[in-house]
Amino acid sequence: MAFLEVTDLVKDFGGVVANNRVSFQINEGEIIGLIGPNGAGKTTLFNCIVGFHKPDSGKVIFKGKEITGFKPFMTNREGIGRTFQLTKVTTGMTVLENVMVGAFCRTDDRHLAKIEAAAILGFMGLDSVKTYHLNELPIAAQKKIGLARAIATQPELLMLDEVASGLNPKETEEMVDLLKKIRKEKEITLFLIEHVMEVVMPISQRVIVLDGGVKIAEGLPKDIVKSERVIKAYLGEKYAKGL
Amino acid sequence: MEKIRDAFDFRDFSKPEKVGFAIFTLLLLLFPWLGAGSFVKAVAIQFLLFSLFGMGWNTIGGYGGQVELGKAQYVGIGAYTVALTMVWWKIPFWASMPLGILVAIGYSFMIGYPLFRLKGHYFAIATICTSLVLQDIFINLKLVGAAKGIELPIHEHPDFLYMQFKSDTYYFYFIMALFYTAIFYMNWFRKSKLGYQLRMIKEDEEAAESLGIDARWCKIKAYSIASAFVAVGGGFMAVYNLYVDPYSVMDLDLSIKIALMAMLGGAGSMWGPIIGSGFLVPLDRFLGSWLGAQKGLIGVDFMIYAALIMVVSAYQPRGIWGIIEEFRKRES
Amino acid sequence: MIFLDALLQGILMGLLFALVALGLTIIFGMMDIVNFAHGEFLMIGMYTTYWTSLLLHIDPLITLPASAIVGMLLGLASYYFLVKHLLRGPIIAQLFGTFGLMLFLRYLAQFLFGIDYRIIQRGLLVGKTLTLGPFIFDWTKLSAAILSLIAFLFVYTLLHRTKLGKALRATALNKEAANYMGIKTDRMNALAWVIGGGTVGIAGGLIVNFWYVYPTVGILFVMIAFASVAMGGFGSIKGAFFAGILIGMIEMLFPMLGQAVGSDFLGPHFKFTVVYFAYFVIVVLRPQGLFGWKK
Fold this sequence. Notes:
CATH architecture of the largest domain in chain A: 3-Layer(aba) Sandwich
Oligomer: heterotrimer
Number of strands of chain B: 2
Structural class of chain A: alpha/beta
Strand order of the largest sheet of chain B: 1-2
Strand content of chain B: under 5%
Order of helices and strands of chain B: HHHHHHEHHHHEHHHHH
Distance between the termini of chain B: 36 Å
Shape of chain A: globular
Radius of gyration of chain A: 18 Å
CATH topology of the largest domain in chain A: Rossmann fold
Low-confidence stretches of chain B: none
Number of strands of chain A: 10
């Protein structure tokens, strides 16, 4: 039984079919990448899985349970965590408090939540900024905090929306190591939308490619980069033929 | 047990805050013996009452970030429950007040459920609507005294069963007790799971949802808590004034004042509503009595608040407490 | 027959409600800000026509432009001195900002004019009626309704057939895109407030011919306007038009419902309460109103 199973997902925004019968499976413990040119429907797909949008048709099955159309807080409680491309910069809560909110998902006890949050921040190397506010920190830290928050909800599947965008090369490297560490030590399955190939290709077991709302390819990273269809989607026909 | 410890734990406040609060408490305890006139005593009671209202509003409006302008309907529910049960069935305050709280909570869940489908401006207007509708119903319902309202029968003083006293001093300590109960409750609330979740909802509702928070349900819970607070204040008003009518306890102006106190003082902070109340209530009373004495100046006091509201909204929406916090940040 | 009469009267009033709602929906459509002071703008429009016609001994219909001008200036001033700054802040600030304006104007009026109820007593059309078959119409109401219709058509033409109007609508749809095309958001915002203030000023000038003006008259009308805008769809002009008329009809027909049901309680004193209730129900059940909204 697949960990996450998406079957024939369709999402139509009144004329623009953002997701057109997309199907794929993710197995437990994998790291799967989702790539595709801008406007391919990647974020929409994410949103349909976690529940920000209700799919027009199709199914989403997680750990054998159908979660199609579940609201975001419900999918989270089922075990799917999610980060956002742009973490809204908040000024009212400290970093620790932010992560505590995530921890509160699994406990009612403030002290436990605090301990759990502190532990996660330690794990991510963010100990030193516990008492800061998000608006006082650089983007790389903000992204990590978004990640920490989601991890605090103890997800089994973590969906990351462009977690590497806005990072410089060194930060990107750190992020890749961090993702590997998360998968290994926290035993969380990762599903990433990415544009930054330096992140997706080295760590993904498989890569799914969307273009114009349709899945156009799926396979090992090394095969995807050679796929004519994928290259055409990104660079246009000229370059595809050229190879 | 945890909860009680949390309520009394003020350790995470800064030193000046703790000291300030301690001095404040001391002053309040001694206040009736300081020889103030009856007018000043009445103002002090109003101050504590509105602080109570403001703290209630703050739960959903400040921490929760959902600006609602219909609190007065719950003041009315509290006040009328106490008044009516006393007039009809001679039920003492200590039984009717809890009943009032239950009615307020019940009603708040009932309208909260549809209400919280809305957000922002639509939500605010809808809260005004529900309050106006309730008020209109009460104005026209003979059963509850319609526009004339209800007068409470006078008992022999002092009466601790029905909370009727001749001297304002008793009322002062009474409202003070309610005030401190509210403070301890708020102190617990802001550290509770709901408190954290609410704050997250205010900061970024989408993110909150992605962290397993059922935003709508949390808001409804906070709204109910706010309603309960405010209903207690209403109950107090009933036994203090010995009179309730739809205009004094359910009016839109009251709703606005309540929200305003919290906002001016600093919505979303513990001390905000108290500061706001401390500023506006004396201003209201003294200005009102001074200006009201001059016949040609009716309405000028309101014009001054209104101007104040506009200035604060435009330049420092985080209120007085916001200004204080900015100061502190610059210092450090 | 009584039913038909109530219906027609309702449509007349409805046209005026629609005009009141027009300004509100334009401002909201432009910048997602709810002008709580809208009712007070109306009140000032009413007082303007009242005082100018009384003091200058001119017919109130002729002093209408004065109300329009005062309304436009009020809108402009409100935008530049207050609303512009509010836009930078959180929603609570925006709400309270226009709320403060509302209170300020209301009590300013109370201070200047006292709490007495006033109404136009003298004018060409005051007290005269038109009889069409079995129906009798007050000329004041009828002319107000007609003028309101004209005003509506004027604004509609302005918005849909002129370059300026198109620029306004472009900004309402997508600020950034319009900006890139050289349409300055700030100017468009101000324009929205000018039109909003002007139309409601005119509405006030018309209404005072048959409705008493007093400092707190605004609250009633602003709630009616909110209900109209909600019903018609926030930001939709067509919506404001039809919803306004619908509400006018509800106003007039509701007391009959009470009679028909035989209930003393459901009387004419609730005819406005029904409107508040209607707002609540509509906004919860069909937030986009009848004609969709500008999100």
